[in-house]
Design goal:
mainly beta
Length: 121
């Protein structure tokens, strides 16, 4: 089995910071690309940031300069450092990972259950 578990969400004031974590566990052979997505209230899910297995990153324009995506491959963990938070950042944040399972022969996407981040003004 493979699962992704997000943590680190909560209530924070505008201008504050928060760090989200996403830990992958189970019968994992390798993890390729990973990313964070947000689901704001009343809107569709959208991309926040991605990071390749080699560490190349990509960010949505709305978070450039404020958020930093990183990964610790030894711990199978993805992070999102969120600085200078704005009320419009309020959303459920989900992590996604492209994972090849042990004894498997193809990669599949796995999603976490999400963690709520609420930014108050």
């Amino acid at each position: 089995q493979v699962q992704l578990v997000e943590s680190g969400g909560g209530l924070v004031q505008a201008g504050g910071s928060r760090r989200l974590s996403c830990a992958a566990s189970g019968s994992i052979f390798s993890i390729n690309g990973m990313g964070w997505y947000s689901h704001p209230p009343g809107k569709q899910r959208e991309l926040v940031a991605t990071i390749s297995s080699g560490g190349l990153t990509n960010y949505a324009d709305s978070v450039k300069g404020r958020f930093t995506i990183s990964r610790d491959n030894a711990k199978n963990t993805l992070y999102l450092q969120m600085n200078s938070l704005k009320p419009e950042d309020t959303a459920v944040y989900y992590c996604k990972a492209g994972i090849k399972r042990a004894f498997g022969n193809r990669e599949a996407d796995y999603w976490g259950q999400g963690t709520q981040v609420t930014v108050s003004s």
